[in-house]
Amino acid sequence: MRTAPAWYSQDMASAGFLAIGSGPAGVSAAETFRSKHRNIAVGILSDDPALPYAKPPLSKQFLCGEPTELELHSAGWFERNDIELSLGVRVAHIDTATQQVITTGGARYRYWHLVLAVGSTAVPLAVPGGESALTLRSFADAVALKMAARHAATAVVVGGGLIGCEAASCLAALGVDTTLVAPETVPLQRRFGVDVGERVVKMLSEAGVHFVGAAQVTAVEDAGVTLDSGEALGGELVVAATGARPDVRLAVAAGLVTHEGRVVVDEHMRTSAHNVYAAGDITIAHNVAAGRPVIAEHWRDAALQGRVAGLTAAGFDSSWDRVPGFSCVVGGFTLTYRGWGGRHDACTVTERANGFRAHYSLQGRAIGTLDATANPAS
């Protein structure tokens, strides 16, 4: 891949559509725009050196050692569709007044339409020795974790969220004696509540994962971790699944309107700056179906928002009107959620022959549904 697009120029006439970020939002936006305009320059800038890939399988099939296709498109696809893909390029600044993107190397890319789709960064494990814990946000992270698991007999996963539960399940499936530690009493408590969390503990146990709840890791050492109780947990491998934070640094520096750490966009993915759009993890976007701004942090939603941004930039009417949703795999179960997320004040769980269903509501209004279904191979 070239480090600078062929259409790179100081001449505004050669500018076109530019996406920052090679995840689902950025690639979907570029692909959609290209499908509507064959003769306008389209480019993607990404600080990730890897060819654009799907992230959900990293903590599922890939880490578990199962066959999976990670690439969103082949290198040849980008070439055939005349989308200039520039990898390993870090953007330093967006100048919305002159419609230019400036990289840390000093290169300048002019744009007519810009989509900001940089995603999130891992929240570090902020304890002594925490920098030695492995994370799972990128393909490089997943490769490092998978290789480390081959030589580890024990592991500690810190964090009881979706990634933590999936990673712990996979490590246990690989034969690693794995313990999951979370500050909540049960995994996924903040997202799905105690009733569901207790069932997740059982899923993890059946998968061979030990769960330690209501505990804080205070230090990471060579032989494992130390908890706030003073207890030491052995772990040749320590994984920090301590959450992710939207990367809004470029947006803030460019003067885009943000709210509580996210870029504010309308239902068409427009930001407060002319011809600048945002999609994916970094946004709080107006959802037509919900009738209000919604935070959606998952792959499917990012791809949908990217499509809306690409269509809007291309001059077509498009709005984000789908109900957000995602799925994850915990042990022998697939959990599928559809809804608006956020706070709920009531949860009703209904048992089923192959799992359960949880209905969430807030002040009597339905806001989401979670289905847990046993996988056929279980």
Write the layout of secondary structure elements.
Blueprint lengths: L15 E5 L3 H13 L5 E5 L14 H4 L10 H6 L2 E5 L3 E5 L4 E4 L4 E9 L3 E3 L16 H12 L3 E5 L3 H12 L3 E5 L7 H4 L1 H13 L2 E4 L4 E5 L2 E4 L4 E3 L2 E4 L3 E3 L2 H5 L4 E2 L2 E4 L10 E3 L4 E5 L4 E3 L4 H15 L11 E6 L2 E7 L6 E7 L2 E8 L2 E10 L4
Parallel strand pairs: 1-2, 1-6, 2-3, 6-18, 8-9, 8-14, 9-10, 17-19
Antiparallel strand pairs: 4-5, 5-6, 7-15, 11-12, 12-13, 16-17, 19-20, 21-22, 22-25, 23-24, 24-25
Question: What would a concise description of this structure say?
Answer:
The protein is α/β, with parallel strands linked by helices and 378 residues long.
Q: What does this entry look like structurally?
A:
It is a single chain. Helices cover 22% and strands 33% of the residues. The protein is of the alpha/beta class and 378 residues long. Residues 1-13 have low confidence and may be disordered. The chain folds into 3 domains: 12-119 and 247-313, FAD/NAD(P)-binding domain (3-Layer(bba) Sandwich); 122-240, FAD/NAD(P)-binding domain (3-Layer(bba) Sandwich); 325-374, Enolase-like, domain 1 (2-Layer Sandwich), CATH 3.30.390.30. The two termini are 43 Å apart. The strands form 6 sheets. Strands 1, 2, 3, 4, 5, 6 and 18 form a 7-stranded mixed beta sheet that branches. Strands 21-22-25-24-23 form a 5-stranded antiparallel beta sheet. Helix 1 packs parallel to helix 9 (299-313). 44% of the residues are buried. Keywords: FAD, Flavoprotein, Oxidoreductase.
